[in-house]
Amino acid sequence: xxxxxxxxxxxxxxxxxxxxxxxxxxxxxxxxxxxxxxxxxxxxxxxxxxxxxxxxxxxxxxxxxxxxxxxxxxxxxxxxxxxxxxxxxxxxxxxxxxxxxxxxxxxxxxxxxxxxxxxxxxxxxxxxxxxxxxxxxxxxxxxxxxxxxxxxxxxxxxxxxxxxxxxxxxxxxxxxxxxxxxxxxxxxxxxxxxxxxxxxxxxxxx
Length: 206
Fold this sequence. Notes:
With about 210 residues, this protein is mainly alpha-helical. It folds into 2 domains: about 1-135, Serine Threonine Protein Phosphatase 5, Tetratricopeptide repeat, CATH 1.25.40; about 135-205, no CATH class. Helices cover about 70% and strands about 0% of the residues. The protein contains 12 helices and no strands. The protein has helices at about 5-10, 15-25, 30-45, 50-60, 65-75, 85-95, 100-110, 120-130, 135-150, 155-170, 175-180, 185-205. Helix 1 runs antiparallel to helix 7 (about 100-110), helix 5 runs antiparallel to helix 6 (about 85-95) and helix 9 (about 135-150) runs antiparallel to helix 10.
C-alpha cells in the first residue's frame, strides 16, 4: 500500500468545503436557493440539526450540491456522527450527476474500504472521472494507483502523466511523487509520459 488511509484522508480534506457551500448558492434554481441558503446560514451558526433539515429534502429531490454537502458532513463527522456508509450514499448520488468533488471523495472511500467494500477498480473509476474534469487531487491519486498497480495494470508512463498534471494543477505533493517515479523510468518512458500529458491538456482545452 503506497499510502495508508490516514494521510490519504487528510490530503483530500484540503477541499474548501465552506467555500463550496457559498459558491453553490449562485448555481441553484430560485426554488432551491431559499432552502439551501437557510442551510448555509445554519451551518455558519453551527446549527447542524437545521442544516440537515434544510438540505436532506433538497438532496432527496436530486439537488447535487445538497447531496455533496451532506456526504461531506458524514465523511468528516461535521455536526453529525461520522458515518462512512452515509457519506458513500450521498456522494454516490452527487457523483452520478457529475460532481467532481463527490467523485474524488468516492474514489477515496473505495480505495480505503470506508463505508463500502474496498474495491480498487471502483476507486480508479471514480478517480478517473474526477481527474478528467481537471481535479488535481484525483489526478494525483490516480497516478499513484497506476504506479502501484491497484485496480489497474501497473503503468509508470500513465502514472507519471497523471502526477505531472496534478503537480501542474497545484497539488503540492505530486511534484515529489513525479520525481521519485521518474527515477524508476527510462528517459524514453518519461518523454512518453510528458507527451501524453501534453496531448491530454490539448484535448481537454478544446
